C-alpha cells in the first residue's frame, strides 16, 4: 500500500502548546508509528519542519527530537512548494496574519485557537479558506477528550431524556509569579498582548456546547480581573490588564440553559480541572477530561433538605462509571490524525475556520455582555 508524506511547517513549537501537545504528543508519535493509516490501508506519514524566531532554541529542539529541518525564515517556508501544511501555535496576536499568508500560498492549515483577536479577522480567515479550497483544521481538542466523547455518546443514545441544563466548572490557581513561578505565560494576563480568559476559553465553550448540545443563542457574562498585579518570566511585576475569570450563562438551542465558570483564580475541589454536569429529565452525567459518570432517573436518590441532620447519602458513590469502550488516545493527536487523513483525501475537516469564527464571536460578545451588563443575542454568521 502507498505512503504519502506530508511536510508540516510547525510555527510556535517553542511554546507550551506547540511543543507539548502538538510536537511531542502528536506529530512525533505519528511519525514514530510510520504515519496514520487510512481506511483503504494507505498511509499518511509526516515530516515536521520547525519554524520560529530563535535559531538556538530551534536547533536544540530539532536535535533533541531527531527533527532534520528547522528554519527562522517564515516567508521562505510558507512559500516552499515542498511544504504541504502550515501549523500555527504562536501567540494569538500573530495568528491571523500567519494563517492568511499560508492560505494565500496554497498551504493546508492546522491551527490553535482562537484563530484571531477579532470577529472580523476570524470571518475574513473563514472566507479566505472558502476561496483557496485548502483543508483547514482548528484545534477543537476538548471534543476529543475521553470524558466528552463519553458524554456525547450519552446524548446520542438519548440517555438524558429532555436535556435541561449544563453547568461547567473550569479553572485552577495560577500562581502570581512573585513567590512560586506562574505556570502560564505572562501574555495571558495582558489584554494588549491578546490575553484574557474570556478570549482563551469562550472559543472552547462555543464548540463544546455546539458539539454536545447545539447552537449557542445568547450569552450573559461577567468577567473579572481578580488578581491585578503579576510577575512575568523575568521576575518583573506587571499590571494584569486582562480578565482572569469569566462567569457565563448561555442559552442553547432547544431551551437548554448552560452556565460555565472559567477562572485562573480558583482553587480546585473537583476531580478534574474541567467538569461538565448535564441534567435531563431521565438522567444526569458529569464529565471531566477523562472520566464520565452517570445517574439514571431510576437510580436517583431522594434527598430531603434538613439542615439539622448530618448528610447520610454518599452522593458521589451513587453514580455509575461510563466506559470508554475504545482506545481514547491524546485528544490533540486524534484530531491531527483525522485532519491528516482529510488533507490526503482532499476533503474538508469538520472543525474549520467557520466554527472557529463562532468561537471568537462568543468571546467578543462575552466581553461586551460583561462591559454593558446585559444579555446579548448571538447572531448567525453568514460567510
Ligand atoms: N487548545 C488549548 O487547549 C490551548 C491551551 C493553551 C493555549 N492555547 C493557544 O495556543 C497558543 C499558544 O499558547 P501557549 O500557551 O503555548 O503560549 P506560549 O507563550 O507558551 O507560546 C507562544 C509561542 O509563540 C511564539 N511567539 C511569541 N511572541 C511571538 C511573536 N511576537 N512573533 C512570533 N512568535 C511569537 C513563542 O516563541 C512561542 O513559540 C495561543 O493562541 C493559545 O490561545 C490553546
From TrEMBL:
One of its GO terms (molecular function) is nucleotide binding. InterPro entries: Gfo/Idh/MocA-like_OxRdtase_N (IPR000683), GFO_IDH_MocA-like_dom (IPR055170), NAD(P)-bd_dom_sf (IPR036291). Signal peptide: none annotated. This is Gfo/Idh/MocA family oxidoreductase. Residues 150-285 form the GFO/IDH/MocA-like oxidoreductase domain. PANTHER family: NAD(P)-BINDING ROSSMANN-FOLD SUPERFAMILY PROTEIN-RELATED, OXIDOREDUCTASE. It comes from Pseudokineococcus marinus. Residues 50-139 form the Gfo/Idh/MocA-like oxidoreductase N-terminal domain.
